[in-house]
Amino acid sequence: MTRLVRRFAFNAAHVLARPDWTDERNRAVYGKCANPASHGHSYAFELAFEGEVDPRTGQLVPPAELERLVADEVLAPLDGRLLNRDVPAFARAVPTAENIARHIWDTLAGRLAPAKLVAVRLFETRNNSVEYTGGEKPL
Amino acid sequence: MDFSASYRGADGATSGHNYELEVTIEGPVDKETGMVLDLKDLKDVLEREVEARFDHRSLSDDTPYFRDRLATPENFAAVIWKLLDGALPPGMLYRVRLRPTPDLYVEVTR
After folding, report:
1. Contact A1 B110 (CB under 8 A)
2. Beta carbons of B3 and B76 less than 8 angstroms apart
3. In this structure, what CATH number is given to the domain that contains residue B52?
4. If you count residue pairs, one on A and one on B, with CB atoms under 8 Å apart, how many are there?
5. Model confidence at B11, in pLDDT bands (50, 70, 90)?
6. pTM, 2 dp
């Protein structure tokens, strides 16, 4: 079995707060991450793919296609943005690490067939990461 | 282990990498020695099967493994798996993880 893992990075700002909650409640649940002025992270994420290596190309995922897809569909919309305001998915869901991993999965799953996306691991900091392996409804 | 090698790509251009190889073995812990495998033995296998064959070589020109295929990370990891699986005690090789650049790795498991 062959698995390929590729790492990417972007920078973004976010606010962890639900618009339908009071400031006190957001502060109680999300702590300093609820700062309405926002704060930011140097995010990184790893995409894991599994599947058959194409005997003609020796590749599981064509690297140029992967680069282009991630650049256009993930990095361009997220890099240097305030996620809550600038990304439609995070108008509906708080941009926690959990939800960002899920959003990246929603954006990319099925796009590089026959290679199968099997995990998105999102690093919010060096120490905190979330891995999403699918199974939930899109955000 | 780390080693360095060059290869020819699909466009005929020659490039190279500092490869990082991570090998995981699995098996019962020997009651007498308290080890799955003597790390010295593992090191000998890695030096013989990987370093001696590939370090400071052209994968495409100096080795027989990439005459009919490109030395992509996927193909190279598969070649290393085969060499190590043949050299280690049967069934002991669990995973080969080959990292050609810091932001990419390919894993082969059984």
Report:
1. yes
2. no
3. 3.30.479.10
4. 47
5. confident
6. 0.92
